[in-house]
Each structure stands twice: as structure tokens, then as C-alpha cells.
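User: Hi! I'm working on a homework problem where we have to compare a predicted structure to a textbook description. Could you give me the structure for the chain below?
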Amino acid sequence: MAGKEVAKKEETALAAGTFNYGEMAGVGFEGTKGTDLSIPFINLLQSNSPEVEEGQVEGAKPGHLYNTVTGELSEQVIFLPVHKEEAWVEWVPRTKGGGFVGMHDPAGELVQDLIRNNGGSRIPPKGSDGKRISFKHGDNEVIETYYVYGLILNEEGTEVESFAVISFSSTKIKPYRDWLTSMYLIKGKPPMFANRARLRTLKQKNDSGTFFNFSINPLRETWAKSLINPETEGALLQEALSFREMVLSGVARADFSQQQSAAAGGDGGGDGEKAPF
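Assistant: Happy to help. Predicted C-alpha cells:
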């Protein structure tokens, strides 16, 4: 009986990833650089995402959250944000094969020229049909995008399971800004990495069709009740701070070619081609 109990405890520890390796922790990873790591994107799949439309991922459906490294599909993610940044991302149009080109500084000349030529507005221009289209750099599309790096937590929000980055563009910018505002307004100005969130998806509709968007809510009843308590959960807070430092130092960086363009399946509208701006 005792042997079975020990075996059961060992299986539970293995499943939960809670083994303590002591002085052996991290051995073999010496000299690991940012280029050696692949921070996954959590992509929100649409009807025209390649994973769905082309059947690239078995079981993928519109509204699923897709981990680009592990290949996991989920309906929700418990997420602890640690760092945010903005970039304007250039893409080859999907009609011409698609693909990531590069990222532009929001304060840089190219982006400022695009905004200036659009009457000073950051809202994308309208096409001949009256619908919003992407900013253009030559034949390519340039899309305002916000990135949030963070830790993926277990269902209870008490332990770290992995890390990821999430991109917000087009229609996703509103839930991103609402999320940011909710965290920023908490009394006492807790750090971003003290805020635990529950990320789900919901179906929305506009002139371009039906699509899925992020639904971001506090892990518990309120944002204040979802905060990490530094007195009782200091270890989790430290893990978040450490990951933030890895991101800022460049040790941990995302492979941006893994992300999805808003115009290539990341925010696809009902027509399967255009982003629903």
C-alpha cells in the first residue's frame, strides 16, 4: 500500500512539474541565448486562418487559441502579463503569398509618413468600397500592432506552466486597451505583472462579416481580487519579474514570423480576405 502511495505521489509531481532539482536545476542550459529560445504566440484563430481553412492543425476551429510552439488548442488561457510594446508590422498580402516582412518603429519616419498622408489619423484608410483597408508600404500592408509578453498559469493562477506573447491588431486593439486601462486604474498602481487575467474569445460582427475577438477578464471576481499577493505569493511575483527582465534584455524574444497578420487570417472577416477594421 505504501509503495502505491509513493508511486501515486511521484506521478502527481511529474504531471504538475513540481520536482525540485536543487543544484542540478538549469544544468545543460548554460549559454542559452535569445536566438536559442522560441517564445510561442497565442494566436486567435479565425475562419480564414491557415490552421482552420487549410486544415493545417487537426481539430482547429474559429475562436480557438492556438499555441504556435506546442501546437495546443484551447478555449481559454490564464495569463500573467509582464511587458508590452508597440510596433507597426509589415506583411506581404495574403493574395500574393503572405508572410512577415518586418517591424517598424511607431515614431519612425515610415509610420509617421503613413499617418501624415492619412490626414493625421492612425485609423486605416478606406478603400473604394468604403471599407477600411490596411496602410500600404509599396504593395505590402503595414498594421498597427501591440504585443503583450507574459506567463501562462495553471487554472488556479498559482503556478507557471509556460510563457508566450500575444499580438493585438485591428479589432483586437479595443480589448487590449480596455485590459490595459483596467490594470492601470487599480488603486495603489500594482505592477503589470501582478495582474492575473482569463483570456477567452467571443464572436462579433461588423460590416466585413463575423469574426472572433478576445474577451479579457480578471481571473477572479475583480481585477483587485486577481492580484498576486506579494506577501503570500512572492515566488510567483519573482518569476514574473524574472521573465520580464529576460524579455527586456533580449534573452527571451519572440520569433515574429510565427505571428498571424490581421490581413492574413489573424483577424479575418467574413469574406475570408480583409481584416474587419
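For your comparison, note the following. The longest strand covers residues 77-91. The radius of gyration is 20 Å. Good luck with the assignment!
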